[in-house]
Amino acid sequence: MYEWNEMVQLMVDWVDANITETASLLKMSEQLGYSPYYCSRQFNELTGMTLRDYIWTRKISRAALELRDTDERVLDIAVKYGFSSQESFTRAFVKAFRVTPAAYRKAPRPIPLAIRQEVFSPYHYYLTKERGKMSNSRVQPVEIKVEYIPAHKFIGIWDLDVQNYGSFWQNGHNCDEIAGVLDSMSNLALPGQLGQTAGWFYRDGQKGYLYGIPVALDYQGAIPDGMECKEIPESEYLVFFHPPFDYLKDNGAVMGAVEHTAWNFDPKSRGYEWDEDVKQDYQRHFPEGYGYAVLRPVKKL
User: Fold this and answer.
1) Paired residues of 236 in beta bridges
2) Confidence (pTM)
3) Domain span holding position 289
């Protein structure tokens, strides 16, 4: 049913793995076992963009990160990502971000980077596999530990009308734009954190959902359009954690186990109580690299 979702996701993987190479639709289609025509057509159908445009936006975005994070010459970065000259790279960069590569390197600012497309999820995986043939979930016992997070600022969006990740993006927030802009600010993330972060907040007895990036308390830089910047007080957090797992096979079970533990745990058993002054909880979701965690602020009894 979702064979092409899975196949287009393999195309996305191929693009990322060969991002500095000269893209060849024929070469990619041969490796995947489908004709170039069908590969191109299905990619456009599922992502809303042509494969050529996707490759271009990913290349220019990866080049932007190298401008920000390395001392490589602009010309060397341009050639690395397939541009024929520094001039053609500059034209493409200005078209994408409305700033020259030299100006961006000198003063990095939030820009709309192209994020990796995701069209094949655990939901699709579940529907494409016969239940009897699916591997048993390998969910481990939820770990609980304490972590201190210093006072910091959080740049992002707080939406009181939704309470989960899926509903957040269905409530008028553009995932590609928001995640792309925040990705350009990843170098500013609070040390020890994962960068882009989601979670829940509480206001006047209501629970909402947030998405953004934690930065240092002394951050004085630009705030992207449509986002706010708020100070979050220091606190210890109870971290309800599951180690890295197979996203496609086990995501639902892992998230369910962690969140069930987090929402039903009595912190008094660890000598704490919930810290009502912080008023927001965090999620960390990076299945293959970190795992999944819910962080709830606490203070000692």
Assistant:
1) 148, 298
2) 0.87
3) 143-300
